[in-house]
Design goal:
By secondary structure, this protein is α+β, with helices and mostly antiparallel strands. It has two domains: about 70 residues, Roll (duf1285 like fold); about 90 residues, duf1285 protein (duf1285 protein fold, Roll), CATH 2.30.270.10. Strands 3-2-1-6-5-4 form a six-stranded mixed β-sheet. Strands 9-8-7-12-11-10 form a six-stranded mixed β-sheet. A hairpin with a 2-residue loop joins β13 and β14. The radius of gyration is 17 Å and the shape is globular. This is DUF1285 domain-containing protein. It holds the Pfam family DUF1285_N. It comes from Zhongshania borealis.
Amino acid sequence: MTSLDQLQAHLKNQPSAPPIEGWHPELSGDIDIVIKADGRWIHEGGEIKRHELVKLFASILRREDDGEYYLVTPVEKWRVQVEDLPLLIIDFEIEEGSDSRRLIFKTNVDTWFELGGRHPISIDTGEDGSEPQPSVLTRHGLAARVSRACFYRLVDIAEPVGDSIVLRAAGETFVLGKSV
């Protein structure tokens, strides 16, 4: 199988996400779940260690226009707390084509997203202009924090353009920062 075939397989072979965009129950309340900045899910003070359970919860998680995060089903909607972003980008694969590059990102809950117009990368440097905080828009209003190791790999394949460092993928150009 070629690497392009592998990338296609990653995108096609992931389980279909529940249709939560069509679910709009009334707020059921707050649930004692905190998604930590390092990707751990904490329920009533204890870590949820079953990866399959975290994946299930992540599949019904969305961020709404009020900026809050909710676990939703057709009949319930529970608000959860998120320290930073609810997902992490932990790896990515590259397909170099003759005229473009494709980058497929893997999250900590085993979902894959192709970098591009629907799933762009953005860089927040904070109010003090400190260390870059890259993230990728995924689905349902959720973003995933790009791990430091992945970001360094992205910078490594980026190119200087003027006074910026840019990453080109899927026919799009993303500014990662200023060149030094």
